[in-house]
Amino acid sequence: MAVTALLTAMREHFFVYGHINEDGQLFYVGCGSISRAFSNAGRTEPWHAHCLTGVVLLHKTQDRNDALSVERDLIEWFTSIGMPLVNCMWGPQTHPNRGRPSKLKNRAMPAEQKAKIAAALKGKRGAIKGRPKSADHAQRIKDGLLLRTAVARHLGVSFKEVSKEAIVAYKNHLGSI
Fold this sequence. Notes:
- The structure is a single chain.
- By secondary structure, the protein is of the alpha+beta class.
- The chain folds into 2 domains: 2-121, no CATH class; 135-176, no CATH class.
- It is 45% helix and 12% strand.
- The chain has helices spanning 2-11, 34-37, 45-48, 64-80, 111-121, 135-155, 164-176, and strands at residues 14-20, 26-32, 54-61.
């Protein structure tokens, strides 16, 4: 009985959700019922090119327009930071919030949203962590870490306190010797 009541309550809400692929990357942001979040019916060819391995519930509301607005804002935000989403961009005739000013434009994602996404991606292969790297890429990462460590020792500061400018100045100093 409790499960039935929970499912009934969830049907009365709209969800903004994200789909995670096999690499642990968010590839789609959608809006709809809880069943739509877990459905692969009616998806586009670019969506089907990914292997859906997880669903992240990003926002829950009883107001459809609120859900659509949050969906749009999140799509704009993720694409603005270079995340390759497969969402189709709608025109004003099919998406009622298209053309409205974004609430997230020119500001960071809210900490609550970041925490939800981080929790959903925890332990999964992300954009960098756990992804195989070429030997050249791995060597460049290692060289960068060694250089930053050398600069930190030279300046007598912690590793985290070393700025990009300090590294460039140190490289120029080494080049002039």
